[in-house]
Amino acid sequence: FVIQECYVQNxxxxxxxxxxxxxxSLEGFGEVPEIIPIFLVHRPANNIPYATVEExxxxxFVKYSIRDGKEVNFLRxxxxxxxxxxxxxxxxYEKTNGNLLVTDLQGVGMKLTxxxxxxLAKGYKGFKGNCSVSFIEQFRALHQCNKYCEMLGLKSxxxxxxxxxxxxSMKSKHLPNSSTIKKTVPKKxxxxxxxxxxxx
Length: 200
Fold this sequence. Notes:
The protein is α+β, with helices and mostly antiparallel strands.
């Protein structure tokens, strides 16, 4: 478990470095969250032979991203660090084509620790995360873009979803006489649908 913890956090740290390089080159983006390194120490004389060592973070510890969607955290949503963490998640989701997501972003200010990674079941580029795939699905459904997402030119996950829904609903409104609708929609329902747009 300790070895996996190091592996996950240091992998997330490498992604965060790439994100930082892209974000810092943008005018006005400012400071970028950093995932601090974690080191594995072998202590053969100790009852617990393996331990992890990392920098001590002093200050208010905040969870900027959450696992279960139940917790509402205003610092996560409204603070600069919180918004930039959400943007980092969006960036990595887009970068890996939705195959990988860094979760449990938490720490003090812009310094983060104890993060997790969710991957699809097959993993991503030989790496398997330590969190459920459901975190990726939840992120895709709940993420709200902010100004930092826009600065990085990330595609809105919501817009894509809405476009698909809109295309489906528009098809049924504008093509009331198409053969597919005749087969699946009773005549009464069709007449009602034809009538609704004329009221507006």
